[in-house]
Amino acid sequence: MSAEEFSVERDYPQAWARRRTRRRIAFCLLVIAGILLIFGGAGSMRDLAWAPIPLGLIFPVLIMANLVWSWSLLLRCPRCGKRFMASRRGGLTGSDPFAKSCMSCGLALRMSRQSL
């Protein structure tokens, strides 16, 4: 994709909404893992037969939460088209998952309506 195919005004709100949705899904999966831990722990303390089931589901739910959160890091910049968290060099050495702006062109991750 070339830079001409991207538009900050058109693509930025949609990209930000997709990132928020992915983060919410990851958070919901973490809440589900916590609930499973509570039910599994309470069931195993009372020696209930179904107690191993929620405890066995915690690890796969945490894996899914990690995958969804990692997927949210793949947000593409609407200005330059590169990944938001990757630098010009690319690769794992130049990435910053906590970056507040695009590491290639400097576009802010959270833009106000006035700046668009």
Overall number of strands: 0
Give the amount of beta strand, in percent: under 5%
Largest sheet: none
Note the gap between the termini.
22 Å
Radius of gyration computed on alpha carbons: 19 Å
Which percent bin holds the helix content? 40-55%
Unreliable runs? none
Give the H and E element order: HH
* Continuous helix count: 2
What's the pLDDT, averaged over the residues? 79
Number of domains as seen in the coordinates: 1
- By helix and strand content, what is the structural category? mainly alpha
Q: In one word, what is the shape?
A: elongated
Walk me through the structure.
The chain crosses the membrane at residues 25-43, 49-75. Keywords: Membrane, Transmembrane, Transmembrane helix. The protein is mainly alpha-helical and 116 residues long. The protein has helices spanning 8-45, 52-72. It has one domain. It is built from two helices and no strands. It is elongated, with a radius of gyration of 19 Å.
Looking at this protein, list some descriptive labels.
116 residues; mainly alpha; 51% helix
Task: Kindly summarize this structure in a few lines.
The chain is mainly alpha-helical and 116 residues long. It has helices spanning 8-45, 52-72. It has one domain.
Per-chain topology:
Layout: H1 8-45, H2 52-72
Helix pairs in contact: 1-2
